[in-house]
């Protein structure tokens, strides 16, 4: 979830194999892109929801918004 230049919940707890989608509840475009490469939602316009991304690795996956680099989030991924 996205809103007010932040991600919620953050961190989010997910399991390996789970599909994650980001919904943009803010009024400007955002993305969710894994740091150092990996998943990338691409641009999510206001009110839109990203395509589902299947999480395949366990651990803490940090990500950010490519439009607003100071906007960061994390997924805590467990097996
Ligand atoms: Cu953003």
As a whole number of angstroms, the C-alpha radius of gyration is 11 Å
Number of helices: 0
Percent in helix = under 10%
Report the average pLDDT across residues: 94
Tell me which ligands are bound: copper (II) ion
Structural class: mainly beta
Strands of the widest sheet, in order across it, are 3-8-7-5
Distance between the termini: 22 Å
Global geometry: globular
Task: Describe this entry's structure for a reader.
This protein is mainly beta. It has strands at 2-3, 6-7, 12-15, 19-20, 33-34, 53-54, 59-64, 72-78. Strands 3-8-7-5 form a four-stranded mixed beta sheet, with no helix packed on it. The chain has a two-stranded antiparallel sheet with strand order 1-2. 20% of the residues are buried. The model has no long low-confidence stretch (mean pLDDT 94). Bound molecules: copper (II) ion (CU). The site of copper (II) ion has 5 residues, from loops.
Entry summary:
This protein is mainly β. The chain has strands spanning 2-3, 6-7, 12-15, 19-20, 33-34, 53-54, 59-64, 72-78.
Secondary-structure map with pairings?
Blueprint (H helix, E strand, L loop, with lengths): L1 E2 L2 E2 L4 E4 L3 E2 L12 E2 L18 E2 L4 E6 L7 E7 L1
Parallel strand pairs: 3-8
Antiparallel strand pairs: 1-2, 4-6, 5-7, 7-8
The structure holds copper (II) ion.
Which key features would you list for this structure?
79 residues; mainly beta; four-stranded mixed β-sheet; two-stranded antiparallel ribbon; 8 strands; 0% helix; globular; binds copper (II) ion
